[in-house]
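We treat protein structure as text, and this decision shapes the records that our systems exchange. Below, we set out a record of this kind in full and without editing:

***
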Amino acid sequence: MDRSAQLTAHRAEYGVVYDPPRTPRSLHVRAAQVLEGNWTGTSTVPSRSLYPHQWSWDSAFIAIGLRHLSPLRAQTELETLLAAQWADGRVPHIVFNPSVPLDAYFPSPDFWRSSTAGRAAGAPRTAQTSGIVQPPVHALAAWLVHRADPGLSRARGFLAGVLPRLAAWHRYLLHRRDLGGGGLTSVVHPWEQGMDNSPCWDAPLSRVTPAPARSFRRADLAHGAPEDRPTDLDYGRYVRLATDYRDGRYADGEGDFAVEDPSFNALLIASEHALAEIAHELGATGTARHARAERLTAALVERLWDPAAGMFFCRDVRGGGLIPERSVSGLTPLLLPGLPRDIVAALVRTVRGPHFGLGDTTRLVPSYDLLGEAFDPHRYWRGPAWFNTSWLLERGLRLHGERQLADDLRESVLERADGTDFAEYVDPYTGEACGTTGFSWTAALALDLLQEHPGHGVSRAGAGTFDTGDFARTGKGGDRG
């Protein structure tokens, strides 16, 4: 049976089984309960069972939703994360809770050895962290959190406190991680990009000798179905990369894995625009940051755009050339206002076309090509739909005037968040829950989409500004090249 016939059979067998949504009020209350249950007092864990520490980009998405419940908690969420920043500017992808047993999650603090192996890079002495990073959503989150209650933010000095840390974070990415020499940031481990098990990594990972299976114990399999999780072979390669990076004292530019990813860079560009607005709020000019964001957008198009495919691809810095795998990462640049109109139109065609099927065969955006040989509707980032990527694309579609498609995607996100008890991710065809439930960013982003007038972001008063909130929600047009 060919791939198309397999997909037809899958749809015929399972159908689309979306449960009727409950009332918005009920969804709001239950989302708030998830975030309350996962709150530790200073930050929010993604999941009490599967992810019992603080994760970097999770906290950014969580803060975006928390601002509607408690702007103070949202500010605290980001401040707690940034307090664990390394002296070289990196924001670690995990900040470990010392009260959680070491065997509750792997890799644990004793694997990363941040206080010793990370000493030369300036790892904090008062917190145990990992040594890798995650996508830079943080400045965007900080700006949206400020706008939720500007009076509280100003009284606490929130933006003044986080701006130097966010600026250092961006400097690290733009200078230390430009491993390809073309102006874009590279990730040095699949975990850094956030879409950990994507088929985009298969080719560059094939050069990595996996760590022996006996050298590590996978805590994730105690909480998730093996068929939903990365294989032991893939996990062994993740462990090898992380071990080599740690043993190299977290120095950048030496490893076998270096990839320029469109989603990671698009989020950096969006956060550059947000940093410009933060600087302006604090009495400085943001012109230079807006200009940098526009230059990065041009570099993104030059290095990662594939016109024949109608989407962005990852670039393998070590192996050379684009990686011809279609993933949701290659659609995420829709978030940016500076894309040329022809690229926006091509991305919209691609997200609606047979490879992603939005509005036709799928209701949420699958993480990987429906027609790809590696597609699996349940396995981690190899096909399932995730709520954070659909939230980002909802913003991007609305930003570029695709109001009906954005409205439909918004309703689907809320419907599936409601019907799956805030699942970590879902089968893109049936909406069946995968991974864990009570997942924090699912609840947080559902809260954001529930707002009658969500956003309250940056105004687009003139050329170079980027509306990360109201503009993206209302679909008012701006210059797009």
